[in-house]
Amino acid sequence: MSSYNWAPGFIDDGDRAQIVTSRFQYEDGHTLDRYLATGGYAGLKAALARTPTQVHEEVKAATLLGRGGAGFPAGTKWGLCPEGKWPRYLVVNGDESEPGTYKDRLLMERDPHQLIEGCLITCYAVGLSQCFLYVRGEMALAQERVAAALNEAYAAGYIGRNILGSKFSVDIVLHWGAGAYVVGEETALIESLEGNRGMPRLKPPFFPAAIGLYGKPTIVNNVETLANLPWLLTHSAAEYMAIGTPTSPGTRMIAVSGHVRRPGVFEIINGTTTFRDLLYGDEFCQGIRDDNELKAFVPGGGSAPWFLPDQLDLPFEAKLVGAAGSMLGSGAVMVMDETTDIPVAALTLARFYAHESCGKCVPCREGATWLERIMERLVDGHGTENDLDQLLEIGQTICPGPFPHAASERLGLAAVPFPFKMTTICFVGPSAYTPVHSAVTLFRSEFEARIVKRKLIPVSIGASDE
Amino acid sequence: MTRLNDANQVLAREIIGRYPKARSATIPLLHVAQQQNGYITQEAIAHIAELVGATSAEVLGTCTFYEMFKMHPVGKYLINICTTMSCALMGAEQLVTHAEQRLGIKAGGTTPDGLFTLERVECQAACTEAPCLQANYRYRYRVNAAQLDQFLDDLAEGQLDAEIPAHGVVARVRQSIPVDRAVSVVAPDDVHEAPVWMPLSGTTA
Predict the structure, then answer these.
(1) Which of A264, A342, A429, A449 makes a 20 to 30 Å CA pair with A81?
(2) B140 touching A, CB under 8 A?
(3) What is the ipTM of this complex?
């Protein structure tokens, strides 16, 4: 265990490969002294000894998957910048706010230099002339730790003009958010960084690499993605690929919360670790609290369709989880035991998305609020028999067609695979529908039990027929 | 004085200088204004608009989009209890009810002495330590009713002043870029060439 009072949550029991959390064992892991004493900035030096193209090729060869939610390979994303168009910028997405997720906060609080080094390697490889590190506003300690680390790294010559005596020069600017979930979407993040309301931009272009910050090519990468780079450069793509599976190499940070015996944030082996390992394994969560039965779990943050005990043996492998009807998303598992009131649990998420809808797309702005209101009256016992179908009908306006959900032996239900069609610009709209759809599809009887059946009493007006 | 004071104007100019376009400093400057006054005043909005070259309406539009900016005075301590799924599964609603009774206000309200504002908030990224709360964005983890009472007492008595600053102050450590290390910031449209360390063709892999 390596948790401190100021940063509980992380658990490193077991003997697994560690890529991004190796310095979490030190209480002073956030300082430059500790960072340098444990191999810090060796990845930057290794990068500077090669050409930018060679560094880019190495990252491509490693198939480093983005850790923000979409899982797009970072090396491929970097390659989407149009040739000959300058300047190019790097925007670091540290606006972590997906329900259930917290790994970026720990990475920023406990090893900020690792993130800074990852930013520098990226800027060097892709020719990015300035980096903006966007940290979620509510994370005061992370902001302080990143600011202190930047100040140290500037003074020591790792950031700024002619880094380590080379031709490579880049500024890293710490930027504060101010509380808005949708800003985690990369085009909304750019809008916010330009000083505007954080509303996603119309697509296409589908990637800011073409038109991003100030209309210029921009790479947006998640904190955890970048934190992998120092290790990757001091080791190799081959060594990285040797961990996990070929399609999901390396490790992932996963936060498991809710009704488990030992909730925590773990760095797991990608691709091979199963949900059963994670929820019941000795080195992980050690089972459901009070020896209760598992009822359901959210496998990839609040936006992911729910899984049942039927899906426990699936590994953390995007394709398999997608085929089973959900997604790995941002690396957050929320666990519900047999005592959970499903409609109430789903309502907490419905409320979240209704509140966080930015209001740009009508299906999300109106739909998310309707979903919340109907869920509220169902939970309060004022629901009608029509309400459940109404919820699904509203969902169809946000996501027309079949909507992904898990298979259930109990219900005789086959899985509908990920993804879905959507009528909104970004994923907030579909995310608002997801918990409602999962709860109603997999636990319909719990909603029906709350609906007070009102009998229609025949009323006769005027003269009686008799 | 509800515009930015002299020291904060110097700070504001330093922050603006880091961005290729001044407008990008809007949110950081709103934080500076909130740190100075505890909330965002109309005068501060007008002042920031002057500094970043926007209209007051544009800055107000940005300001009202974000949860952390308060357009009216709030308590010295903003008590934010998370009620999203992971915390809700571990009893967050009971904690909110307890806090409401203890403080004699509903969530969203401020105590008459101006000490506490209570808010029901969304995921604060401490889900394994549920239920969690933040006081002026400083965490308290796995909080039960008795601990909440003790915590509120300690805050009221000023025992936690060293750890938890008054509302408005978020980070107490600021970035400061040394002049001799800084790369000069160029307007985006004035850059046409690849950076000097890139291969001449400007291509990437």
Answers:
(1) A429
(2) no
(3) 0.96
